[in-house]
Amino acid sequence: MTSRVLVISGASGTGKSTLAEALLEFTTAGWIGVEADLSAPQAATSVDFSDREVQQRYAETLLNSVLAWPAAGYDTIIDGLLPYPVSSHHRDVLDRLGSYDLKILAVTASETAIRHRIERRGRGDIEWSLQQLKDIHDGVRADFTLDTTSINLHDTAPLHEVLTWMNSPHSSS
Fold first, then answer.
1. Nearest to 7, CA basis, from 25, 33, 29, 30
2. Phi, psi (5° rounding) for residue 87?
3. What is the residue-averaged pLDDT of the chain?
């Protein structure tokens, strides 16, 4: 049986993590959630991330650690895994995910909502998030889309399509 993977893609502040938590709360199937940003280990200031080889090795190791969950047979929501900006590395990640029953949920929100959310949490670069908002989904084949600007996550109606897929029986492979 092939593991299912739901990648939640969106700019910082669009509500990816909050959405992942809501999906995990409302699913009736046995899913787990991995927030890619929180899976990344801290590095000493002496690690030279301007070195392309260091960047690639770090990104590959992070990807392997996140993909360990679906590789072990868990249906997995992965929050924020797709590299930005869209590049060959972005396509490589999608290729690696191709061995799973993969769906992509593209999340967006208004600029005002993003500014408010980032200011409220007290961390993040608002201008970087607004830049991501413009083109983070370029070239990404989204199976589901959701604008979280005014969504009430206690109302499952906007999540219905995603939850229907998550709660459906596995397809045979």
1. 33
2. -155, -175
3. 87
